[in-house]
Amino acid sequence: MRAVSDDDAPLLHDVMPWSVRPLRIGRGWPMAPDPATLRDRWALFTAARGEAERAALLYPTRARGLHSRVAQLPGHRTPTTALAGEDGRCPEPVMIQHGAHDRQWLIPDHRLIDAARPELWRVLDDRQIFAVERAYLPEVREPAVAFSALLPDGRSPAGRPGRIRPLFRQPGGLDPNLAPGLVGLLSEQLAADVTAEDVLAWIAAAARPASGGCEVPFPTDPGDWRAGLALGGRLLWLHTRGARLSDPAAGRDPAGPRLPGGSRPYVRAPLPAAPRQEELEYDPDGRELQIGAGRISPVSPAAWDRTAGGVRVLDAWWERRTAQGTPGSLEALRPPVWTRSCTSDLLEVVSVLTLLAELDAERDTLARALSARPGRTLTATQMRDAGVLPVPAARRRPASVLGHREEGPDGQFALV
Q: What tens digit of pLDDT does each residue of 199-210 get?
């Protein structure tokens, strides 16, 4: 991480000091596009009686094997005994954020996940918003940060995965993960009542990628701040698909993003019952997705071309649902037919990508305004003088969640 000079914008590393590395699952089969497939895979795994057969299905690693004993994931009552003798029901799958724009289901069993990052699960609730810093890719034009109301796995298709930064360090929207004194400095500078959600909305609008780390220029002008909050609120609402920052008066429906009638994508010709990976194509003239004989339109070129980690979002989404697993592996067990829920999710992803692309010009306008003249943003010197920088080392570590009991290996309990 580079040092911040006196005139630099602060880094996200300092603005949101507590961060966690991405999840490392270690095997593909505990994650799938639908929960029914995960239950089927679990049933096949627990039906294997010989240890050699069960080990081959598990896909053991140095971190996890049939005899690993680990604690439960916070909030999930799963067994903590070894998988070698597991014969119970599949733990209830949970939805997570896979990469920047995909949603997958995961078996929340710590025995299956090499590095589950329990500290993230402890602060996951209906107030939390996660910021995921993206890998710096100078050759592509992408936002520096993605956001999620779901637990994110932090996956990046290219480059080194970024860090996951929860907005709150404790459940219930308590103890914002912000540099101490930052909210007070902004409130004084902008003559406004600044909240933690406001700071995150500003990050969504103004954060910019840089080789030494994501930069966050904070404004000195109240007009810039108000424009950034309106833009950032909409970006957070889109990234979380309406789960956070909803505001009907501002056009942010709690039910989630929807395009206007003339721009809303529809299925114009039925999709194949079992589509293949190579069948996804795009016709820019007709503005439609072609899936075998199936057709979805209208789909804007901007939605089709949208990338995350240098990879086209729709290509990655499609691959997760059509790629064939290795024969004989649990990943090879996939849904027998294409479901209506898959189609609905595809339409929603297209809508979100379209609406995000429409906000790119506003992000560019704000960026130009902030760089238009000296003094329009707070400098590192001003933030040091205000005591915001440097950030105390303790703020980079997770908070203690007092009274939170978790079952450890073989049923032992501990306070965290």
A: 999 999 999 998
The answer to whether the pTM exceeds 0.90 is: yes
Please report the DSSP string for 274-318 in residue order. Answer: S--GGGEEEETTTTEEEETTEEEE---HHHHH-EETTEEHHHHHH
Q: Are 258 and 242 in contact (CB under 8 A)?
A: no
Q: What are the residue boundaries of the structural domains of the chain, listed by start?
A: 12-251+362-415, 261-351
- Residue range 213-266, pLDDT digits in tens: 899 999 999 999 999 999 999 999 999 999 999 999 999 999 999 999 889 999
Alpha helix (H) residue ranges in 76-211: 118-122, 182-190, 196-206
Q: What are the structure tokens assigned to 260, written together? A: 């206007």
Per-state percent for the chain, helix, strand, coil, to nearest 5:
35, 15, 50
How many whole angstroms separate alpha carbon 297 and alpha carbon 283? 10
Q: How many helices (H) and strands (E) does the chain have?
A: 12, 16
